[in-house]
Design goal:
- This protein is an alpha+beta fold and 86 residues long.
- 20% of the residues lie in helices and 44% in strands.
- It has a five-stranded antiparallel beta sheet with strand order 4-3-2-1-5, with helices on one face.
- Strand 3 and strand 4 (49-55) form a beta hairpin.
Length: 86
């Protein structure tokens, strides 16, 4: 069972470079009791790509979640006021 919800949606836009990207992450349990970190990214308005990481412990998933968050913040990704429906 996950102690608290982990959900993130950030965007990076630059009109001069025709850049409009999104990056989303969440930590969720799967049917077998493992903890999964789901990552989705791509161009805003497009389906994009998805990757799933499986962990035995929640702490490992949270560590990767925070590391990826730091990387995205350094690259200019920022939170959006409201999350678009998926």
């Amino acid at each position: 069972m996950i102690a608290q919800p982990y959900h993130l949606y950030v965007e990076r836009t630059d009109a001069a470079k025709n850049m409009a990207r999104y990056y989303a992450m969440s930590i969720e349990p799967n049917l077998f009791g493992d903890i999964c970190l789901l990552r989705k990214w791509g161009r805003i308005g497009a389906r994009g790509q998805m990757m799933v990481h499986h962990f035995g412990r929640e702490e490992e998933a949270v560590q990767l979640f925070l590391d990826l968050l730091r990387q995205k913040r350094k690259r200019g990704y920022r939170p959006r006021a409201s999350v678009p429906p998926q």
